Each structure stands twice: as C-alpha cells, then as structure tokens.
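Minimal example, chain plus manganese (II) ion.
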Amino acid sequence: MSIYVMSDLHGDWAHFKLMLLKIRFSSSDHLYLIGDIVDRGPHGIKLLQFIRQQNNMTLLMGNHDMMLLQGLAHFHESGAEDWFDPQTYAELCQLSDMERTQLAQYLSSLPLFLTVSAGGQDYFLVHACPAPDGVTGADALEYFLWARVSPESQFVKPVIVGHTPTAYYQDTIPLRIWRNNNLIDIDCGTAYRSILPGGCLACLRLDDNKEFYV
Ligand SMILES: [Mn+2]
C-alpha cells in the first residue's frame, strides 16, 4: 500500500487518468488531492464526482472548490453563471438538482488541512499555505485557501502545498516539484500547460518521496 499526493487538477481529467495508470494506482493505495479540482479545465465536475465515489481518495478544500460551493447556493438565481467558471457552469447544468445538492454536501465536508503519516514521517497537507501560529477563523481560512507560500518559509515539519505553480520559484522546464527546507510545492501547472511552458501534472509518493510526472 502506497500513499500519493496530487494537487490542482483543474478539470484535467485526461492527465489525471494517465497519472493513475503511471503510478499503477490500486485499491490498496490512497490518494490525497490538495484542492482545486475544478475551473480552468473542462472536466472539473466529472473529476469531483469520480473522486467523491472513491473510498481511497481524500480531497482537501482549495479556493476554487470553495468558490464552487459558494456558487452552488445561488444556482437558481438570475445571473447565477456569474458565480462560476464558464466550463464548470456548463458541466453543472448537466446535473440534476439532486446531484448538485450531493455535490454541495460533499464540498462542505472537505477538510481544510490534514496531517498524513508515511514512511515514518508526518506531512502537513494544505492547499495554499499553513496559517501562522495564533491565526484563527477567517484569517486562517485566507491562508489555507488563498495565500502564496513564501519560498523562504521555515516549517518545523514537512508541509505539502499546491495552489502556487512551482514556476513561481524556479525556471525549470518542465516544471518540477519544488522543495526548500520543509516546504514541498507539488503544483506543476497542469492547468496552465497551454500558456506555461513545461506545465505538467505531478504526483508525489510519500512512502519514498518518489516523484511522477505526466
Ligand atoms: Mn488554488
């Protein structure tokens, strides 16, 4: 059994499925997805529906998933499409009211952060950035979902984030997982591959820290 982490699929169903094949993902493995399943790409809702039905996949909340949850509360209002990315809205329109309600229930259940143990090490998983000590409530939420993590951050334990494409720190092409001190950023920009040279989908196996790319 292995533990894997990915982030920021942003509707990229094709590369997600390719990655599952590449890592030979099986029912005895577990996959953590650190948020931002939807928007920017065409299949975010399809991905959400799929991930929701897997008992060995755990999704954490990203800012785009939170915006989707907020938008769903306004789905039947006039101008509702303004709440959504156009591709996400088009997918939502294909669902029944019951399916949209189930989706909202799933989204509202997502954790903001998790600690995962693998290979004798604890990892703190969060979409955007850990909150500084003493920061709570809405301010903490802002860190978890929206903040840009500083490349100079000094964390006591390994922290794995997405949200900020690693092109933010390095000009490696193709993009690669970025590690500095205890910070590990795994967003290699699969959502931006048409505009960001070297964008790809990364997956990290926590048991041995092996990196996979498609
Ligand atoms: Mn994000």
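The chain has a mean pLDDT of 96. The helical segments are 13-22, 44-52, 63-72, 86-92, 97-108, 137-146.
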